[in-house]
Write a structure and sequence with these properties.
15 helices; 457 residues; alpha/beta; six-stranded antiparallel barrel; single chain; elongated
């Protein structure tokens, strides 16, 4: 990641701090393994601002940090950054109580307000974080840089997205319907494929294809397989290889898959473990052709810099009003599970199709920890999501509970469930571990233009 440094200066203030600001900020970025881009001396006039804007056009960056070591100059700041096309973070340097005389006073506290006011007047997106002023190099400044880097990562990764819907949505699930034209307005292109293309690629694969052998070895080492499953593992590896080739050929950033019942009746397999491994490899993948939740997964994964998962809002947890069970059959990445998954014959398909038609269900348990979750829809030409936080608890599900799930706790959960129903949100929810709610809200609202849904006040 590369972040450009812009130093806003006002020459009526002491200049020593302004001259040092770029080097101090660059050192902080390097410490966090972020590449700094330095284009110019502190900018205090329109000539310097135009020079900076030209430099920013020549060298691609993921974001800009606008540092105010003193009051700064809001007009030249706007000229320099209004066409940046990337997230902009405003950072004002703190005054100290022993340096409030005219020789040392910064007044950046006030200058930041003035500059942000101008950007808001001109509708130029920008980011502000707490605290209002920071000491460059201090812990609060480093925390701001990490959060801003995550915002930049989300914005960069979501500005142009190629999704692939492999197969039509599962016939009974109207919950996952979406508007492709609406997604295009947000820079998200969806390529739709009939399952027959996937089946054709599957059947054309030779058993000795090098990428098939590599995929079979990767799957064998990824989770625990039952005895006597070599033939099923080869079928699963063939399907996974065919999907990999489609991803590469069409340049897809995420896929959704029609996962039942054609795969089970035609190929005698369940694709859960394939989707799990794709997510582990940071290629967003979900089942039941839920493209909007796959978009949420990608954003969550970018924010956390880790895999995301898509689960069902599945069960109440006894009479506890703030807990529920989140579950899916097994498309969950290994990094999100307590232990490597165990491959089983999918019990739902075994019940309706007979045993041996659904091997590939990746059974496990969600690891404990705080998570951020999201889900949404396209409606009236707009893309909208809610964002919430929850916690997977240490308590484990009963051993007879199949698939991959966990006991999740939410604050004010019943009110949020009412909000989910009133807004008509789907039965799926996507999540990644950690607290990235603020990061995603900033990226969605300020830079990507997604609508935010409030479930409960």
């Amino acid at each position: 990641m590369k972040i450009a440094i812009f130093v806003s200066n006002r020459i009526t203030f002491p200049q020593a701090a302004a001259q040092a600001a770029a080097a101090e900020t660059a050192a902080a970025l390097k410490r966090l393994r972020i590449t700094p881009a330095l284009f110019a001396a502190p900018v205090a006039d329109e000539a310097g601002a135009r020079q900076y804007a030209d430099s920013l056009k020549r060298e691609a960056c993921d974001g800009v940090i606008a540092v105010f070591p003193n009051f700064g100059d809001e007009s030249s700041c706007l000229t320099a950054l209004r066409d940046a096309g990337v997230p902009i973070l405003f950072a004002a340097c703190s005054d100290t109580l022993d340096a409030l005389g005219p020789e040392t006073r910064r007044d950046a506290f006030c200058g930041k307000i003035s500059a942000v006011n101008l950007f808001r007047q001109c509708r130029v997106p920008c980011t502000v974080l707490a605290p209002h002023t920071v000491v460059v190099g201090a812990a609060a400044f480093d925390a701001n840089l990490r959060e801003f880097a995550a915002i930049c990562r989300v914005v960069r990764g979501m500005k142009r997205v190629r999704a692939g819907s492999i197969g039509a949505r599962c016939t009974p699930f109207k919950t996952v319907r979406f508007d492709e034209t609406a997604l295009e307005r947000y820079g998200i292109a969806n390529e739709a494929f009939d399952l027959s293309e996937l089946f054709g690629r599957y059947r054309a694969l030779a058993d000795d294809a090098p990428d098939l052998r590599e995929k079979a070895a990767a799957l064998r080492g990824y989770c625990r397989w039952p005895e006597g499953s070599d033939a099923a593992l080869l079928r699963i590896a063939k399907l996974a290889t065919a999907i990999d080739r489609m991803i590469a050929e069409y340049g897809l950033d995420l896929i959704t898959l029609r996962c039942w019942t054609e795969l089970e009746t035609e190929l005698k397999l369940s694709p859960c473990v394939i989707l799990s491994l794709l997510n582990q490899c940071r290629i967003t993948a979900n089942c039941e052709v839920d493209t909007v939740n796959a978009i949420a997964m990608r954003a969550l994964s970018l924010a956390a810099d880790a895999p995301a998962a898509c689960l069902d809002w599945n069960n109440n947890y006894g009479d506890d009003e703030n807990r529920c069970i989140l579950f899916h059959c097994g498309p969950v990445a290994a990094d999100l599970m307590r232990a490597p998954g165990r491959i089983v014959d999918h019990p739902m398909f075994a019940r309706i199709l007979g045993a041996g038609n659904g091997l590939g269900c990746n059974q496990g348990r969600m690891k404990p920890g705080k998570f951020t979750c999201a889900s949404g829809f396209t409606r009236e030409g707009k893309l909208a999501f809610f964002l919430e936080n929850g916690v997977f608890e240490e308590t484990e599900l009963p051993p007879e509970f199949f698939g991959c799930g966990g006991i999740a706790r939410f604050e004010n959960f019943q009110a949020k469930m009412l909000g989910l129903l009133r807004h008509g949100l789907p039965h799926h929810v996507s999540l990644s571990y950690g607290d990235s709610r603020g990061i995603l809200a900033e990226a969605f609202r300020e830079y990507l233009g997604y609508d935010l849904i409030e479930l409960a006040r």
